[in-house]
Amino acid sequence: MTDRLITHLRHVDLAVPDLARQRDFFTGAWGLTTEHTDSGIAFLAAEGSPEQYVIRLRQANDKRIDLISFGADTPSDVDSLAERLATSGVQLVSEPGSLHTPGGGYGFRFFDNEGRTIEISADVAVRQHRKIEAGESVPVRLSHVVINSADPEGTRAFYEKHLGFRLSDILMHPRMGEMMWFMRINSWHHSLAIARCPHPALHHVSFEMRGLDEYMRGTGRLLRAGVEKIWGPGRHLAGNNTFSYFLDPHGNTMEYTTELELIDEDTWHPHLYDFSDPEVSDQWGTANAMNEFVARRSFNDPDKGLFVAPPV
C-alpha cells in the first residue's frame, strides 16, 4: 500500500446550471458563508473550518462534480504523489504548480479510475475561522463525501493503492451483496465512502455540526424552510454519526451530521454490517424507513464531467 501522503478532505467543487439559486441555498438555509466570488464562481466557507472554502460552485450548462480536493502536508509530498501516480499510469490533468484559487498553495490534479477530477494541495493559507458557539446550527467543517460508482471494487482499490486510503467498514445486503465502503485518510472513521450505483455520480456531501443540539436545530430549520428531506434524522451504526439528508436545488444530496467516530487506526478492524437490520441504518429508529425510493434519490444524475477536467 502506498505511504499515506494526503492528510484530509479540503473541499468539493460542483458545477450547476443555476449558480445564484444554489449559492442562495448554501448561504441561506444551509449556513455556509460566501468568502470569495468571481465571474461565474462562488467559494463558500464553513465558519468553524480553517479551509478557505469547503464548497466551490461554478455556473455551467451541465450539473457535475468539478473536483474533489484533498490536502497534503508539504509541497514535496505533492511532488512525490504526482510522480507516483504518473509512474503508475494515472492520467494527470495538471502538473504540480502554484494554485490560483483562494489561499493559493501548491498542487496538481488527476483523473481517478472512473474519471473524476481529484486535486491534491499543500501550503494553502489558513482561513481566519472561529469557534462555533452553543446553539449555532451552522456547519463547523466539511465531514466527508460519498461517491456513486459503477465499479466500486475498482474504485476502492484505486484509492487504497494510489492515495493510501484504508477501509473502515462495509455495508452489505443478503440479496445485493456489498454495497458501500467507508474509507479513511486519518483517524476520522471516513472522509470518503463509495456506494455501488449503476453510474458514477455524487451520492452526498456531509457537513459536521457542533453537537447534537445544533444538528437538530439545523435539521429543524431546513424542515421549516421547506427543503426536501430524503432521510433522517437518525444515527448510523457505521461511523456512529447522526444523519439528516436533504436535496439541494439541483437534486444533489447534502447531509448534516455530528459525532462522526474517531478511531484508533492501529487497532481498528473493519466490520461487515448487514443493513437489512434496521439498527444498522439507524440505531435510534427515528428516521423514515430506508427503502428503494429513498436509496434512488441519492443515485443522482449520471456525472457529465468524467474524464473532462473543469475549466477552472
UniProtKB/TrEMBL annotation:
The keyword Oxidoreductase applies. InterPro entries: Fosfomycin_Res_Enzymes, Glyas_Bleomycin-R_OHBP_Dase, Glyas_Fos-R_dOase_dom, VOC_core. It comes from the Bacteria. Residues 8-123, 141-259 form the VOC domain. One of its GO terms (molecular function) is dioxygenase activity. Keywords: Dioxygenase, Oxidoreductase. This is Catechol-2,3-dioxygenase.
